[in-house]
Amino acid sequence: MRNDTVILFPTETEAALFRERYRASCPVVICGIGSSACAAATAAAIANHHPRRMFLAGIAGRYPKSRSEIGACFLIETEFDAQSGAMHGTLFESLGEISHSCRYPYGTIPRCNANTVCCAAGSPLHITGADLENMEGTAFYAVCGALDVAQFAELRAVSNTVGDPPHLWDIPLAVRNLTDTLEMLLENDQ
To answer: Which of 13, 42, 129, 188 has the most CB atoms less than 10 A away?
Structure first.
C-alpha cells in the first residue's frame, strides 16, 4: 500500500470499518456531508498531505431506474452537479458547470455516473440519466482537478433507493462492501 494516498469519507460511520482494518495505511479525512464541507476538506487534505492520489469513499442512493443492487460498489466516472439550476416540472436545467470526471485507471470495478444533490431526493429527478446520487462528488472532483492531483476517484456503495426512508437503508452492507472494494483498489495500486 502506498503512503501518497489520502481517503476522504463524508462521515465516521462510512470510515469506521476502514479505520479498524487499516489503521496506519494512509491518511483518512472526514470531509463532512455536503459540497461546501467536502470542498474545504479536500483542499485542506491536498495542502497538508500533497497526495499523488485521492479517493472519496461513501454511500449513495440509487435511482429507481438504475440496474444497480443495494450493496453494489461503483467508481463514479462522471459526477453531475444537480445543485445549481432550475426545475421545470420534473426536469432540471443546470445553471453552472454541469459535470466533473474522475482521473483514475479503473481496473475491474464497475463504473457509473452520479448526481451531486444538496438534499436527498424524496423522489427521483430527471436530471442527467445518472444511476446514483450523493452530496459531495462534484466538489471533490472540482477541487482535485483544480489543484492538479495526479489521480482521483470517487467510490460509492449503494445503501438505498432514492426516496426510501432512512430506516430502509442498508448502511452496514454498503459500508462493508465499500471497505472491501477500497481495500482492493489500494492493494492493486499500479
So the answer is: 42
C-alpha span between 89 and 69 (Å, rounded): 28
pLDDT at residue number 53 = 92
Q: How far apart are CA 49 and CA 39, in angstroms?
A: 15
Buried b (16+ CB within 10 A) or exposed e, 24-38: ebbbbbebbebbebb
Q: Which helix (H) or strand (E) holds 18?
A: helix 12-21
Single out the residue of 103, 109, 99 nearest to residue 129, CA to CA: 99
| Per-residue DSSP letter, 63 | P
What is the predicted pLDDT for the residue at 1?
Answer: 39
Q: What pLDDT is stored for residue 189 in this prediction?
A: 64
Predicted pLDDT of residue 95: 61
- Distance between CA atoms of 76 and 131, rounded to whole angstroms? 10
The residue whose grid cell reads 464541507 is 37
Rounding to the nearest 10 degrees, give the CA dihedral for residues 94, 30, 169, 80: 20
Grid cell, residue 165, equals 426512508
What gap in Å lies between CA 183 and CA 21, rounded to an integer? 9
DSSP string, 44-62: HHHHHH--SEEEEEEEEEE
The DSSP 8-state label assigned to residue 81 in this structure reads E
